[in-house]
Amino acid sequence: MAWGTTRAWTRKHATLIDTVFAIVFVGLFFTAYFFGDDHGPERGPDVTFADSVPAHVIAGATALVVLAARRRWPERLLILDTAVSVGVIIATGDRHPLLILAWMIVAYTFARRTNRRRSWLVAGSCIAAMYLAGGLFGAGGWTDPSNLGATAWPIAVVAVADATRSRRDYIAEVEGRARRAEETREEEARRRVAEERLRIARELHDVVAHHIAVINVQAGAAAHVLETRPEAVGPALAHIRRAADTVMKELGSVVGVLRGEDELDESTEPTRGLARLAELLDSFAASGLQVEHRQRGDARALPAVVDLAAYRIVQESLTNAQKHGTGKATLMVTYTPDAVLIDVSNAVAAEKAGKGSGYGLVGMRERAAATGGTVTAGVVDGRFAVHAALPATVKETP
C-alpha cells in the first residue's frame, strides 16, 4: 500500500520532482566542473568561450529547462538541446559536457514515451546534426575521438531506452492477454453455471409436474368420495403417497448433480428411457389417465441423450393430456432406421383450454433441439397433438 501511494504521489508531482532533480544535477555538475582537478582556479590565461561565463550560463539554463520539463515536452526539448549544442560547437569548436548529459537524459525519456520509428527518426536526426557540426567546426575534425564518442554514447542511450520501452510493452501485452484469458474463463464458467441451472430447472419441471398432477387428481378423487364411498379413499391416498415418494426420489437424484463427485454414491437406478415406458404408463393409469399405446418398428437401444429426451417428452405430453384433456390420450412410438418418432394426442376439455404456462412445451423443444431433433405441438381437428422427431444416430458429447 505504501509503495502504491508513493508512486501515485510521484506521478502527480512529476514536474516538481524533475525540477528538483534538474537543480541538483546542474549544481553538482558545476561543482565538480569548477573544483575538479582539470578545471580549478589555477587555469591558464587562455580561456575559450566554452570555459567563459556566457557558455556556462547558456548550458546551465538550457539544462535546467530541458531536465525540469522533459516529461511534458520531451521531443521539443530534445531538439532545443540539440540546437543549443550545435550553436556552442559552431561558436567554440567544442562541445559543452553538460549539454551532452542533459541531451542523453531527455533522449532516454523521449524514446521510452514514443514509438520506435519516431524515436529513431528524431533522435537520429539530432545525433547526425551534432556529428556534422563537430566534423565541420570542431577542432579535431570528423575522426576525432571526442566527436565519435559524443555520437556513440547518444546512440547507445536511445537503443537502451527503445529496448526498455519494448520490454515494458511486451510485459503489458502479456499481462493484458492473461487478464483477458482470465475474464474469458470466468465468463465461460458463468455461462456453464447458467446453462446447468437451466437444465436443472427443466429437469425439475419435467420430473415433478407429472407426479404433482397425479397427486392433484387423486386428492380430488379422495375428497369427492370421502362421504359417499369412504372405502375408496384408501387407494387414492396410497396413490398420493407413492407419487409423493417418487417426487422426493426424483428431486434427490436431480439435485444430486449439484454435489461434488466425492459426495455421491454410485447410483444403481437405471437411466430414464423408453425401456421404462411401461412403468410411466402404469403411473398415469393409476392416476386416471387412459393411454392407448401403440408401437411401430422394433424397439432398439438409442443414444442415452435421445433415450432420455424421448422419455421426458412422452412424460410431459401425457402430463399435459392429463391436466388439460378429457382423461384419454393416444401414444404412438415409431422406430425408423434413422429416427424415433413420438406422437401424443388428446381431446381438449373446453373448461381447461388455454390454462397452461407453456413452459412444458418450451422444455420439450429444448430437449429435442439438444439431440438435433424437433418438436411441434398444436391443436389439430379438435385434438391437441405433439409430434417429436429425434435422430437415432446422434453422437453424444464426450
Automatic annotation (TrEMBL):
One of its GO terms (molecular function) is kinase activity. It is an enzyme of class 2 (transferase). Its EC number is 2.7.13.3. Residues 196-262 form the Signal transduction histidine kinase subgroup 3 dimerisation and phosphoacceptor domain. InterPro entries: DUF7134 (IPR055558), HATPase_C_sf (IPR036890), Sensor_HK_TwoCompSys (IPR050482), Sig_transdc_His_kin_sub3_dim/P (IPR011712). Pfam families: DUF7134, HisKA_3. PANTHER family: NITRATE/NITRITE SENSOR PROTEIN NARX-RELATED, NITRATE_NITRITE SENSOR PROTEIN NARQ. This is histidine kinase.
